[in-house]
Design a protein that fits this description.
Blueprint lengths: L1 H18 L3 H15 L13 H4 L1 E6 L2 E2 L3 E3 L5 E2 L1 H13 L2 E6 L5 H6 L5 E2 L7 H6 E3 L4 E3 L1 E6 L15 E5 L3 H9 L4 E5 L2 H9 L5 E5 H9 L5 E5 L5 E3 L2 E3 L4 H15 L1 H19 L9 H11 L1
Parallel strand pairs: 1-5, 1-6, 10-11, 10-12
Antiparallel strand pairs: 2-3, 3-4, 7-15, 8-14, 9-12, 9-13
The chain binds glutamine.
Glutamine (GLN) binds next to loops.
């Protein structure tokens, strides 16, 4: 994983330097590629109702979120969510195909019927629940803060007050910062990796992003970056479906079965066991702030 991320960082940097790609340029390229990979059903569209007929479950994701989803060396979308959904698909008798798009477009794409489900490290929120039905939680997460090693005075959410903070647009991290922390400036990026590159180049003071993704980015840059627990409420990742979808209960059953028979753990260990080792050995990761303390600090800082 570490090696993969180093390559990813190098490629992103090379793309920006040599091709002068803008964010949207590289997203477009990626979308074209992913659309080619994804096959639609007979009508050329997934509408969440004829899945049984087509036998295909078209799952939207944003493969810029390692280790949950990323484009692997083979050019295919890989990661924890991908393996989880492939296994769910196998148990329910669906061929699973992933379709790549920007994170903030996923729910709209499902509403428009171009994907049947979303598996993208998507956290359950009240607002999203108005638009989609979520499966049971398949992963517990939280937000972390990444900083340059020489700037370790920022360790928790309250320390972000007055700072320039990079986030991935439309994510729970973006919403949390916008609503709770008086940052000097929130810089919104389409991809977490671009926020990290901006941090490395001194464009922002910190990046606020989901914990496991923060750890992965730090592991790929351990000479320069460290990450800390943001100390905010935990979040829960779940698969999203169109409102009223019959798939929710079927997918819940499949996930419960996978937890019971050890398949979930096998997939989990593949992506996160190494990360837990890193946590204690390689990464200057501090969990020294309780959620309650930190929330108090944020309040005080305001
Ligand atoms: N968990 C965050 C959210 O749901 C970020 C997800 C992502 O960027 N893929 O908003």
């Amino acid at each position: 994983m570490k090696k993969f991320l180093k390559v990813l960082l190098a490629l992103s940097t090379a793309c920006m330097i040599f091709a002068g790609c803008t964010d949207s340029g590289s997203e477009n390229e990626q979308n074209t590629e992913a659309t080619t990979q994804a096959t639609s059903n007979e009508n050329g569209q997934a509408d969440g109702t004829d899945i049984n007929g087509s036998g295909k479950l078209i799952v939207g994701t944003n493969p810029e979120f390692p280790p949950f989803e990323y484009v692997g060396d083979s050019g295919e979308i890989e990661g924890f969510d991908v393996e989880l959904m492939n296994e769910v698909g196998k148990r329910l008798g669906y061929e699973v195909e992933f379709k790549s798009m920007e994170f903030k477009s996923l729910i709209g794409a499902m509403e428009a019927g171009s994907i049947d489900a979303v598996a993208a490290g998507m956290s359950i929120t009240k607002e999203r629940k108005l638009a989609v039905d979520f499966s049971d939680t398949y992963f517990n997460a939280s937000q972390y803060i990444i900083v340059n090693k020489e700037n370790q005075d920022i360790k928790k959410a309250a320390d972000l007050t007055g700072k320039i903070v990079g986030v991935q647009e439309g994510t729970t991290g973006d919403v949390y910062l916008t609503e709770n922390v008086k940052t000097q400036n929130i810089k919104r990026f389409k991809k977490g990796i671009d926020a990290v590159l901006d941090l490395k180049n001194g464009g922002c003071d910190a990046v606020f992003i989901d914990a496991q993704v923060a750890m992965d980015f730090v592991a790929a840059n351990e000479d320069q970056l460290v990450c800390f627990s943001g100390g905010i409420d935990s979040e829960e990742y779940a698969v999203a479906f169109p409102k009223g979808s019959e798939l929710v209960s079927k997918v819940n059953e499949a996930i419960a079965e996978m937890r019971a028979d050890g398949t979930y753990k096998t997939i989990y260990d593949k992506y996160f066991e190494e990360q837990s080792d890193d946590e204690t050995e390689d990464i200057s990761l501090e969990e020294n702030t309780s959620d309650e303390e930190s929330k108090e600090d944020v309040k005080k800082a305001e």
